Amino acid sequence: MWRNVVQRLLLALPVLLGVLLLGFLLMQVVPNDPAVVRAGPTATVEVIEAIRRDLGLDKPLAVQFGLYLSRLLRGDLGISNINNMPVATELGNTVGPTLELMVASLVWSIPLGIAMGTVSAYRRHSWIDRIIMAVSVAGVSVPVFLLGLGLVWLFGFYWQVLPFTGRTGPIWTLEGLAGIALPALTLGGVFVGPVARMTRSAVLDVLGADHVRTARAKGVGERAVVLRHALRNALIPVVTLIGLQIGFLLGGAVVVETIFSWPGIGRLAVGAILSSDAPMAQGTIIILSVGFILINLAVDMLYAVLDPRVGQT
Amino acid sequence: MGETVAVTSGNSPHAGFALARRASLLRVLLGEPVGAVALAAVVLLVLAAVFAPWLAPGDPYGGDLADTLKLPGEAGLLGADGQGRDMVTRLLYGLRTTLAMSLAAVVIGCGIGGVVGFAAAYYPRVSGLLMRSMDVLLSFPAILFGLALAAIVGPGIVAVVIALSIATVPLMARVVRGSAVVVMRQDYIEAARALGLRDRQILVKYVLLNCLSPIFVFVTLRFGQVILLGALLSFIGLGAQPPTAELGAMAADGRNFLFFAPHVSVLPSLLIFLVVLAFNILGDALRDALDPTLRR
So what's the architecture of B16-56+78-295 in CATH? Predict the structure, then answer.
């Protein structure tokens, strides 16, 4: 198993390097010259040249990429063009809220989705199966902002019971919990459907397996067959699929953060791109990409742990 | 010359078979109420988008400020937006832009993905390299491509189309390679090779034709997803820019009036939901109709 883990880590390295290279090239194609932007509108040619030397922009691209990597390793992601704050500091402030939002969305949507999918498989072709599957098709098709705007209107405006404008405090306080409720309901809401569909089809697959037939033959009740023999085995593919989807949930988080002014990394990225803050945009895109690589790596390893047959070939 | 004769005689019953299957596919699809409704909805929505300039009662870019934020029924059938523009008109043009944007991304992405997939299936020597690079692309979500492209070429429809094309390529390549590999193992491919047909002839006439069902299902489902993703990117401001009538951008535009004129953002959001739902249900119905073994 360890050999497998090491192998995956080694495979992730070139991808990581590729992402960093792309992130670096991103800066080269952005129309604004970083030295001119940094120097400001009134700077003389000499000042711009000095800044250019300072930033190493007069060196060949390959050397610049090396310098860039060494700066990255030291946690230096450059300085925002807009507010002159170090990009790394701003990023550090946004990672927490984004993780908070994702965890708060997953803790309710995954159990609910698995429960719905299992019930659906257990009572396949019944009216409850039909309703659950209809709800999950709707969940896969709904734009996350329709759900978000609907919840804002209902809970924030009509009933006025929950806030909808940003993070209201640490999550362990009552105000913090109230503040994260609507964003987490929105983001989790689009996740229940896919989880339910994946669970249903995985459980149905396992229900056709030999060991389930054996369990039935020896007189195990249908409920025990589904819960003890089918669901447990079905969870292996479900966990993998959920893991892969979590990366995509991070994409949904970008939209939810925009709707609710949630101070996360997605909102920072969108804001940076819209205000042409190239260093900040580059930093957020790199951090998000590295996040996806890490999530995929973790899922791969989790899969190898859960299912010992993987990675032995 | 003998080869050409062999090809045509081998091809015509094959084409007839495909045609018969297509007719029965339509019958199966129409036999299921859900599939029939989804098909009708997709056809209607596409027609509405294509004929928007003739169907729309007003001008999508010029409004009457006196009608600003009028509710449905007060001005026009569905009211007016923040600049007094007729909502029916805006929705029709918005649907047109959204569908055109998605169509471009699906055509480009599936075109490139299809070539990669067939190449990987037909030339095992490059298969590993091609499919590994597809795996890498696959590990990043479409929204991230959207962010990166918007940072490079600037926010706009072009950025969205490129980003969603890139995000579609690896998915299509997987589907195509998966089904092409199965087809390649069939005896008739062996026979075609033995007859001395060239690679290109075999790929187009036999492999491609026999992979059409899974490709058809994938493209339908992917179209729905691409519409949704494009609308999301426009909603956060990285896609179509105002005043362009595009459903996601319109939903974002109406956000400021949510509490006193909710129709301005809710109607375009609902329309996106309807379109995506129709494509998803149609895709599921197609899959059930084409592959009865998957039906549950």
Answer: Orthogonal Bundle (1.10)
pTM metric for this prediction: 0.88
Residues of chain A with CATH 1.10.3720.10: 93-311
Test mutation, A125, A132, A137, A141, chain B, max B CBs within 10 A: A141
Give domain A93-311's CATH superfamily.
MetI-like (1.10.3720.10)
Q: Identify from B45, B95, B140, B280 which residue to disrupt to test chain A contact, counting A C-beta atoms within 10 A and taking the largest count.
A: B140
Under an 8 A CB cutoff, do A285 and B143 touch? no
Q: For the segment B107-140, what is each residue's pLDDT rounded down to a tens digit?
A: 999 999 999 999 999 888 888 889 888 988 887 8
Residues 266-295 of A with CB under 8 A from B: 269-270, 273-274, 278, 281-282, 284-285, 288-289, 292-293
Which stretch of A32-41, A57-66, A117-126 has the lowest confidence by average pLDDT? A32-41
Interval A111-136: pLDDT, tens: 999 999 999 988 888 999 999 999 99
User: Do the interacting molecules here have an ipTM over 0.85?
Assistant: yes
**A219-229: average pLDDT:** 82
Task: Collect all residues of chain B within an 8 Å Cβ-Cβ radius of residue A124.
Answer: 296
Cβ distance A143 to B136 less than 8 Å, yes or no, reads: no
Chain B residue whose CA is closest to A146: B269
To 10 degrees, what angle do helices A265-274 and B142-153 make? Answer: 30
Is the CB of residue A207 less than 8 Å away from at least one CB of chain B? no
Q: Tell me the count of A-B CB pairs closer than 8 A.
A: 119
If you average pLDDT over every residue of chain A, what do you get?
85
Best residue in A259, A273, A295 for a mutation probing chain B (most B CBs within 10 Å): A273
